[in-house]
Amino acid sequence: MNVTLFVLISSSSYWFIKWRPLLISALKEISDSDEMSIVNERARLVHYEKIKRIKWIILIFYGMNVINAIFVHLPHRADVLNDSAMIPCYGMGPLTSSPKREICSTLLCLQEISSMCVVLNYQALLLLLIAQTANLYNLLSDEIMTFNNFDSQMGFINQEVKTKLPILIRRHAMLLSIIGKLKALYSVPIGINFGINAVCMLLFFYLPLQEWFQFMPILAYCFLVFFLYCFLCQRMTNAAEGFERAVYACGWENFELKQKKAVYVMLRQAQKPVELLAADIIPVNIATFAAILQAMFKFVTVVKV
């Protein structure tokens, strides 16, 4: 656990210093696209419901980590007499008596809480960005499909297209830019996180049976983070594919020639696959989640037998 936390903190700190301008740019584009998506009362209601779901996901993520911290991580890491304590408070002398033991435990606890906040906020930000990008794709699909509701009023639909289509094209371009920045920001960290979580889950099954309950929150944390990455990235991929279908089914055959050409270009862009890659190699989706769990099960079964 010490190595895991150290690697995550080191990678997230280096990542934040190096990629901070790119992250700020991505957050700004998401904010701008989010404001542009709330065009009417119906869009605002749909947007509110989707944001509420994201809040629940983030709250569940934080809740699982708080449980892990209270029952497993902090009791072991902040105990100065435990071998797994992070720092034995050098220079304070023997820690078997009060108040040195309490002071050292407090310092260790504060250090551990600070480290966990860095790691958890780093991971929660990634989950938030992926989930919100998927939501923006869904809202964009709903918006472009409204063009298909005016087939009987040719003049009206052409006017609607001339007004709204440039805005939709801009929003789509912003989403493509956001996805490119997410790939640049999180490809390597996701790969590191996948590897660490896989190793932790494998090591868990080598523990004696009587120690399983004690370390079950750690397994739940690794599994939850692994699943959320794959689930939300799959949602983003599905939303992008849904947008592609929406562009094709938006009633473009009723548009004027200039708007038809614009829709054709947008359709060509929408046909490009949208997915995040762990370490620029492994696609992050539900298929990867199932394949890795299957491989882990086979490995543990063969080795333990």
SSE layout:
Blueprint: H1 2-37, H2 41-77, H3 100-145, H4 154-204, H5 212-248, H6 257-270, E1 277-278, E2 282-283, H7 286-304
Antiparallel strand pairs: 1-2
Helix pairs in contact: 1-3, 1-4, 2-3, 2-5, 3-4, 3-5, 4-5, 4-6, 5-6, 5-7
Protein name: Odorant receptor
GO biological process, one term: signal transduction
Membrane topology: Multi-pass membrane protein
Describe the protein in words:
Helix 1 packs parallel to helix 3 (100-145), helix 2 runs antiparallel to helix 3 and helix 3 runs parallel beside helix 5. The protein has one domain. It is 79% helix and 1% strand. A two-stranded antiparallel sheet has the order 1-2. The model has no long low-confidence stretch (mean pLDDT 79). The chain is mainly α and 305 residues long. It has seven helices and two strands; from the N terminus they run ααααααββα. The chain crosses the membrane at residues 54-74, 120-140, 184-206, 212-232, 276-297. Keywords: Cell membrane, Membrane, Olfaction, Receptor, Sensory transduction, Transducer, Transmembrane, Transmembrane helix.
The N- and C-terminal alpha carbons lie at a distance of 26 Å
> Helix share of residues?
over 70%
One letter per element, helices H and strands E, the order comes to HHHHHHEEH
Mean of residue pLDDT?
A: 79
Strand order of the largest sheet: 1-2
Helix vs. strand class:
mainly alpha
Number of helices: 7
User: Mind summarizing the main beta sheet?
Assistant: 2 strands, antiparallel
Shape: elongated
- Strand content range: under 5%
Compute the CA-based radius of gyration: 24 Å
> How many E-type strands?
2
Q: How many individual domains?
A: 1
